[in-house]
Fold this sequence. Notes:
By secondary structure, the chain is an alpha+beta fold. The chain has 26 helices and 21 strands.
Amino acid sequence: MTLAPRWKKLVGDFVATRGRVALMLAALAIGMLTLTTIAGAYAILTREISRNYLATNPASALIDLGQVTPEALELIRNAPGVADAELISIVVARARAGDGPWLRTLLFVAPNPTSMRIGRFLHSGAASPADDAVLLEREAAALLGAQPGDRISIQVEGNTPVALPVASTVHDPSLAPAWQEQTAYIYLSSATGARLGLEAEPELVKMTVADASWDQAQVDAVVIEVAAALRAAGHTVHQVQIPPVGQHPHQSQMTGVLSMFLVFALLALVLSAVLTAAMIAALLAQQVRQIAIMKTVGGTARQIAALYLSGTALLALAATAIGLPIGLLGASGFAGIIAQLLNFDIASAAVPLWLIVLLVATGLILPLGLVLLPVRKASRATVREALSDQGVSASALRRDPVQALLGRLRGLDRTLLLALRNAFRRPARLLLNLALMGTAGGLFIAALNVEGAWKGQLVEAARSRDYAIAIDFLSPAELALVASTLAGVPGIVEVVPATSVAGAAGRPDGLMLVRTYPDGGHGSLTLRPLTSLPDAPGFILGDLPRQGEGVTNQQAFNLLGRPSLAEPVLLASEGRTQPVTVSGVARQILVPATAYLPDDAFAAISHHGEGVTSVRVVVAAQASEPDIAAIADAASLALSSAGVTVEQVTTEATLVAAQSGHVTILIVALQAMAMLMAAVGSMGLAASLGSSVTERTREFGIMRTIGASGGALMRNILGEGLMVAWLSLPIALALGVPLGYAVGQLVGTLSFGLPLPLTLSAGAVGIWALLLSLGAILASLVPARRAASLTIRQTLAYS
């Protein structure tokens, strides 16, 4: 089969410009790889997190009755709209493996935990455990340092610790990861619970609403009617938990961050396609006389356009064939990292067929659409216009104000001045390079700015807390005993009581309804006396309270629906309600949603007995992180020896570790995306310099004729590359600051309920300048060596 002459020309052009063809191919492949990785991971993660969560048959609601009677359970099961209901108790305890530290623990106690229909766990490694054994959630196993066959000590309020064997580990994707909550999850039968000293009667009823998998309003209506019916029948409803319908605890946060990455990935592909279009346009400019010859021998505008569009399509197809499979592997790997972080399994890493088709279509259509304009312009030019084209004419350069300004500069090295003037010879090409490298730099600077803002918030959080260690007790302890015991621990300066109770927004019907998951997190509200508010808090809204007023932090303010500071807010706890006027919203980092009530209001709503449920420990100002950890261990040991049951000990390091894992992955992903875009920018710079060397071939011949050495030509090209790279720095900074602020808004709101402040990383610009200079030198090296190797004979023979 004989190829038509125009297709032979296309093959010849690919061979002759194979360097630039390789750069275009690599740029498009990187763009496709990036978009496929993020879009594929988005599809996998959103599907699998939902599949994992729904596979547990999550409860539409948990109703706390304190003690569930057969009559109450029957009433719930027969209520209109209820699909199913079953018994469970969720008990706060503490546990440890061997001689390890005690950790806060949630015990899920059911008649038979392996046969639960609602809120069930997945892939148990064993059948129903014996009455002297427990099941351990797999993330909790890592947190405790226990494995099947090990014995763990468990202690519930008012009882002595009991050592029980771990029958197997299980997976419960309906709960937040144990490492993040610093809470162990243990499942056991009612008979095993009796060995720990638990009451035989369950406290809670789990229920599901029929035909309302995704209808929050319907679920709310059915559950509230059931609660009203229970109260009308004489049962006490302590609390109703209704988690967001059909959503994993971290689903909304994950989706928000992935959506942001998706925008950046699409931008990477668009910039890669723009680069390809610019390089095709440069090739067309160099082949303008060849186009004139093709028209002279009978070629039509349509045939010529088809020739170059076909070449672009082949490049796009090859780049898609390279980038798509690698991107699919990247999507699987990235999804696996996020799934492991959030404790859910990926049953299938397959990307939906419709998404693959969409990605292929985008990878083909986008470059073709962008190259259409320069191809159309070149193919429609007349033979006369094509033959009279002189590229960048001398008269055009003289009229260029930038060139005129550069021509008036004095005192600069001539090589540097020539590099500057050459950089501005093709403004469109220069703008493209600046856009590519500026965008990459903006992402990199934004990532470091977000990292700086995050670390700054952690420092602010530590500074705003006037304590170093928080100690929670399994049952109320006598303050005098706690204080005297801790007074004997070296390094402790002061012990401050910090009693709290669980609360919720009050309702006119007196029902305590909270939007929390079974672990009690993500939507819970803590009520504390006003005396627990740290000294001199910073206020986002309002000010310090006057007599009879309270304060919330930003998390509680958002949870309560951002109430007016001038009107009372109804708060509830354990069936009691109390109106409180909020005077201000305190800025608190790494503090859960908390409302600080006047002492009399707190006493009225809590009916708290003697003793304290937690204390805050102040240590010496010079204590280091290892010192604080040692003091915390000593304090826990001393309290245990004194008969005080410690539920959990929390230090600043524990809080930071629990929160920073998510943000670290976000920052690393942003930096990786910036590096990929920087690679595309470097390829664009290399291609531009390669085109520049080709266009200036005769100019280099003249320079060699009047005595310029190869080294001088090489310095000229290297200088031009560095100049273009450094010109992109202001653009990178201009993009990085608002972009970092926007990302900080998202990250801070998801983490703290408060945007991260605008922060400028001191080293971000310097680090990026070094990376940029290195990339520019590498990108300029091949064109520079090519220019330096040109002989006078080669330059005179060029046409």
